[in-house]
Every structure is written in structure tokens, then in C-alpha cells.
Specification:
The chain has 216 residues and is an alpha/beta fold. The chain contains 8 helices and 11 strands. A 7-stranded mixed sheet has the order 5-2-1-6-7-11-10, sandwiched between helices. A two-stranded antiparallel ribbon has the order 3-4. The protein has a two-stranded parallel sheet with strand order 8-9. Helix 1 crosses helix 8. Belongs to the peptidase C56 family. Displays glyoxalase activity, catalyzing the conversion of glyoxal to glycolate. This is Glyoxalase. It catalyses: glyoxal + H2O = glycolate + H(+).
Length: 216
């Protein structure tokens, strides 16, 4: 049975992992006959957002503790993620990918990826194991894989320009499809960068996960 490592960035679209994307991906993995295990960095969130008002709250929350809500406690610190133990990698989106796993939301093309996240993702790249990045998470790809890596965040021109400026090759993609960089074995899909509903997000995620498990 193929094993998929999933890296979460908290819990909640505006300051953590996009919950719909995460759950859809976990469900799709199981539907393809594979298993999953979640990981997250044991660090403080960049900030905490009230998901009703979109206002920043005067709180501190931990990325690993919050991500455990999605994983129902079936999660480990990312320092314990070893690529040799898994067949493939998947990162859901949500602003946590651009605020907690990296600082892309604030620095754009000049972003840096959390050192442990970078180590784990590059280990899968070195092992030539397939990896999937959803929604805004593909902005990590140029830093992980280097110049020429292909991926999509959908059609948002500003984000696509930043992806290209970082050395990647952005490819526009509709919500119900995915992009495969065959050389590097990277899969990307727009998900909620374009989706207007859970069903629309699922349309691309399900196709991506099916191919991810096939490649694993």
C-alpha cells in the first residue's frame, strides 16, 4: 500500500491550511487505495485571523497544534518526516503555505521557505519521488526544485509573475485539471485559487491525487 506524506500549515484558509483542500486530498488518497500521514512545523503561526471578520486577532497559535485538528491528532512534527519512509508528498494550500511554510505572502518572489519544510520537500525531490502542491503552495516549488520547475496556481497573473521571477515556469490551468512536470515529477492544481465551491476544488484535486498515487 502506497504511503503519502502530507504537510499542513495550520488550520484555516486565512492563516493556515485550507481545510476543504486538505480533507479532499486525504479522502482522495484513501479512495485511490493509499494511506496518508500528516506533518507540520512546530512553530508559531505568523498571525491569527478571525475567519468571520478577516481581522487579525491578538493571539498566538502553534502550526502543529492547529494542524492536528484537521488530522484528528494523526500528525507529527515535520522534523520527523523522512522521505525514505513515504512514496509521495502532498501539500494543500491555504495562506498558511505562504505565511507559515514560507513568507511568500509578504515578500513575493524574494520569499524564503521554512528550513525544515525545505529540507523535507527537497528530500522527496532528491529521491525523485512525486510531489503535489495545491492552490498557493506551488509558490514553494522554485525554491525547492530550482530553475525551470513547472507548476500552476491557476491564472492569477501577479502570482504567476512571481513564480516565473523565482525561476519557475508557470502554466495557466483551469480548476478541474492539473499540471505535471514530468521531469521533476511535480503535480500542481489551482484548487481554491480558482474554485468557487467544494465541488470545483475537488474536480482538480481528485484528478491530481489519482495521478500522484499512480506515479508513486
Amino acid at each position: 500500500m502506497k504511503r503519502i506524506a502530507v504537510i499542513l500549515s495550520g488550520s484555516g484558509v486565512f492563516d493556515g491550511a485550507e481545510i476543504h483542500e486538505a480533507v479532499l486530498a486525504l479522502h482522495a488518497i484513501e479512495q485511490e487505495g493509499a494511506t496518508w500521514h500528516c506533518f507540520a512545523p512546530n512553530i508559531a503561526q505568523h498571525h491569527v485571523i478571525n475567519h468571520i471578520t478577516s481581522a487579525e486577532m491578538d493571539e498566538t497559535r502553534n502550526v502543529l497544534v492547529e494542524a492536528a485538528r484537521i488530522a484528528r491528532g494523526n500528525i507529527d512534527d515535520i522534523v520527523n518526516l523522512n522521505a525514505t519512509d513515504y512514496d509521495a508528498l502532498l501539500l494543500p494550500g491555504g495562506f498558511g503555505a505562504a505565511k507559515n511554510l514560507s513568507d511568500f505572502a509578504f515578500t513575493g518572489a524574494g520569499c524564503e521557505v521554512n528550513p525544515e519544510v525545505k529540507r523535507a520537500c527537497q528530500a522527496f525531490a532528491k529521491e525523485e519521488k512525486p510531489a503535489a502542491y495545491l492552490c498557493i503552495a506551488p509558490t514553494l516549488i522554485p525554491t525547492i526544485y530550482g530553475p525551470g520547475a513547472k507548476g500552476t496556481i491557476g491564472t492569477d497573473q501577479d502570482t504567476a509573475n512571481a513564480f516565473n521571477k523565482m525561476g519557475g515556469e508557470h502554466i495557466n490551468c483551469p480548476v478541474n485539471d492539473f499540471v505535471l512536470d514530468q521531469k521533476r515529477r511535480i503535480l500542481t492544481t489551482p484548487a481554491y485559487m480558482l474554485a468557487g465551491s467544494i465541488s470545483e476544488a475537488a474536480s482538480g484535486i481528485n484528478k491530481l491525487v489519482k495521478e500522484l498515487v499512480k506515479l508513486a
